[in-house]
Fold each of these.
Amino acid sequence: MHLNPYGEDAVNLAADLANRRPASAGELSERCRAAGLLVDRPVTRGDLEKTWATLDAWEKVVDATDEHERAELVNRMLAAAAAYPRLTDHAGDGWHLHYRGEWQPFGSVLFSLISVGTALHLAGRGMHRLRRCAVTECATIFADTSRTGRQRYCSQRCANRDAVRRHRARTAP
Ligand SMILES: [Zn+2]
Ligand SMILES: [Zn+2]
């Protein structure tokens, strides 16, 4: 996973992990790898617990009600991340930035990645582009990377569900 200028992959990974929390260190490792993240160090129970705490903090960012509160919560995460960007060409396919110190455990690497990725996404695409699905009983989190920035549902399925419901409400006797 290369941290692109809009942090898209990192913020999507955060949403995926928050929506369905990993239950074991092995699962965390697998899902990060499947999302394209370089897992270059062991993933332990401690890293899993650190990730749960990261996701708790991150969900507060998602649920922030105004953009100043949201910015403040992201800034707190960034301040605690304590990682500086490093240039790397580890795969030989081009120089890019990593937010990981050689000494850091995986949970800290992931915390930095999610903090920086979320900041890039909000700054680059818009402070409002992180939310939960508009279908009340769904509550799935998503990063809005649509062209218009007006995505309200996590999926087409939820959009359809809500359209049917609104139609029924209008035509009810
Ligand atoms: Zn890389
Ligand atoms: Zn939904």
Amino acid sequence: MIVTNERGYPTMSKVAEYLQEHILGEVSTNPAVLKALSTDASVLEITPEMAVYPRVTNDIRKVARFVYQLAEKGHVMPLTARGNGTDETGAALGKGISLILPAHMNQILEFDSKQKLIRLQPGANAKSVNDALSLHGMSIPSLPVSAAYSTIGGAVLNNASGPLSGRYGDMGEWVHQLEVVLANGDVLQTERISKRDLNKKKGMQTFEGEIYRSLDNLIEDNRQLIEQKLVSDIRDNVGYSAIAKVKQRDGSFDLTPLIVGSQGTLGVVSELILKAQFTSTQQTAVFITFANKEAARDALDSLAELSPAVLEYFDGVLFTEAEKQGRTYSFYNAASGTFDAGILVGFDDFSDRARQHKVKKLKKMLINIDAQITVEDGQEATALFAAREVTAYLLSPAGKDVSAPPLFDGAYVPSARFEDFQIAVTTLAEKHHVTLPLHVRALDGTVYTRPILQLQKVGDKQKIFKLLDEYTAIVERHGGHLIAEAGEGRVKARFAYKDLDDDVLELFAAVKEIFDPNAILNPGVKQTTELRQLVSELRAGYDTAAFADHVLHS
Ligand SMILES: Cc1cc2nc3c(=O)[nH]c(=O)nc-3n(C[C@H](O)[C@H](O)[C@H](O)COP(=O)(O)OP(=O)(O)OC[C@H]3O[C@@H](n4cnc5c(N)ncnc54)[C@H](O)[C@@H]3O)c2cc1C
């Protein structure tokens, strides 16, 4: 029997006690614990009322069933799944219950080397998964830069992408099957099913059956809208765009793409089966410094023709910031002084000859250009690839009380518009008296930039959303979109949805309603929020030092 307050709802400590009695994991309402869970890598702060550390899928089911029943009685207690809380958009934050997966549910359960499939719990550390696979010469090539300090579940639920994604796609491409705890506590296994099996599923008198029935109807009713506005070869993680991948022309049906990238808003993933591939351990890295940005930009298209695994562009000012903090790279000698832009190229062909052949072609391509080329293989290549982490120096910039919140990471801009885009971003930066150095994953047009701000100052705090608004407009004006990497979460939803048509937004809302009719799962994530509310949730200060530390030492 649960004790209730004067309005008939259970008091928090009673909820905690009740859940603790019923699950194998732990429950905490300790203020220090809740404070630690009130932030992720975003600029927001939202304190949960309770932390739950599930040990088994059944724990998650019991918690979900409890909050579902509470919601049926009119009291919504949000349930937010959390990996390592490195999300940059506030998606790992929520009031109510913070469900922390990595504490116990962090095991690698099984590996099938023949099928190249690995079965895991969601809280497994993402880099450890690749470390384990490397013993078999394999990897999941799309892990994010943050793999060393984030979970595999977080990577999948954010549809993360990483340095190799220009060539190997996003995390979604490496997901085979998911086990999902639904909003009411039922469990569903995703997989591609035939038209015949879909009809069987639709006949089930359960929540799972209801999901298949409603979603299939939704897709059929919106077929034209989906084909015209959501089918695209270019990655767009906004809302539930992945609905376009659920039903194929042959009538087969798979919920997996929809759960991938859903940021915990459609269900809690309790187990995953991911695909892996053989990976070359021999790599060649090339760093090219350019005297001017134009020459660097112009070189990108021809360099892409060499089929590199890595092709990244950096504004030279990023290296100036690193140098201020004492960091130098081997290619500084070749560049003899400062440079306006740099390009990192990586080849991962299995054959040594193939890599050397590509390097030769690369040198030939740039023979008449004012550029300095440094080439490294083996261990030295690893050191050169570390140049990618130059952006981490922005996470903890030199200077007192300054920080560079990752507000704009992961937009898409088509390469043909990159030059104009770069000019527009420079104008935006000048207008707001900030610097916005660009880092671009050129193979798929993913763009990163972080403004250096003093968030203790009211003026700089006010700049956050102004900048985001104007930056979004620039991205869209140049044929791009804001949410190419990870999700929009809380911080970016308002801005990313501004240019979406009403019928698309209605479709997204209908998807959410099907999976989460009582709005329990991560409410406020992948939903438009009033600016006033976002401002009220801003952290007093912003400090990414911990993440910078991880990046620089992982
Ligand atoms: C320095 C830095 C670099 C980064 N680099 C990249 C990058 O290269 N590419 C990239 O895509 N992102 C990047 N990120 C963002 C983030 O680190 C990644 O997306 C990462 O994969 C998130 O993992 P996590 O364990 O921290 O997840 P969290 O932040 O805890 O959660 C992320 C989202 O997934 C949901 N979630 C987590 N686990 C589950 C589950 N089991 N079931 C349901 N929902 C769940 C959460 O509710 C939340 O919405 C970076 C962040 C930082 C700070």
